[in-house]
Amino acid sequence: MNLKVGDKVVVIAGSSKGKEGKITKTLKKENRVIVEGANIVKKHRKGNGQETGGILETEAPIHASNVMLIDPKTKKRTRIGHTIEKDKKVRVAKKSGEKID
User: Fold this and answer.
1) For residues 59 and 37, what is the distance between their CA atoms, to the nearest angstrom?
2) pTM
3) How high is the pLDDT of residue 30?
4) For residues 9 and 39, what is the distance between their CA atoms, to the nearest angstrom?
5) pLDDT at residue 49, rounded to an integer
6) Do 22 and 6 form a contact (C-beta atoms < 8 A)?
7) Which end of the chain is more exposed for a tag (fewer CB within 10 A), N or C?
8) Distance spanning both ends of the chain, measured CA to CA
9) What is the DSSP letter of 48?
10) Cα(92)–Cα(50) distance, rounded to whole angstroms?
11) Following DSSP, what letter does each residue of 65-93 receive, concatenated?
């Protein structure tokens, strides 16, 4: 998976299609990401002594193939490529060639 926490992405498939947000968490083994403000689900939680119960809204994981990185230069969605700079592998945006990170 070429996506990292903090990357700005756009959702390209599913019920949250078109929404933009930052990645807050990556689940590498399941190849999924959690995007801030996208794929909102409602969870019913029972209250206990310290917390009140009720219906909570939270972000659910999205498969990594359903999000694309936003190019820092053109502000449009793009694929991720790799190049080597000074013996270090670096991520680059395919559309503009701009370095990511």
Assistant:
1) 7
2) 0.83
3) 95
4) 13
5) 87
6) yes
7) C
8) 15
9) -
10) 47
11) GGEEEEPTTT-SEE-EEEEEETTEEEEEE
Question: Could you tell me where the DSSP H helices lie in 2-85?
Answer: none
Place of tokens 């945006």: 93
Backbone angles phi, psi at 13, to 5 degrees: -150, 155
**What are the backbone angles phi and psi of residue 65, rounded to the nearest 5°?**
-75, -10
**CA dihedral angle for residue 90, residue 93, residue 96, residue 97, rounded to 10 degrees:** 20
Domains along the chain?
A: 1-70 (2.30.30.30), 73-101 (no CATH)
Q: What is the pLDDT of residue 101?
A: 75
Half-sphere exposure of 100 (CA within 13 A, CB side): 29
> Residue-wise pLDDT tens for the chain (101 aa)?
899 999 999 999 999 999 999 999 999 999 999 999 999 999 999 999 898 999 999 999 999 999 999 999 999 999 999 999 999 999 999 999 999 87
Task: Decide the pairing of beta strands 77-78 and 67-70.
Answer: antiparallel
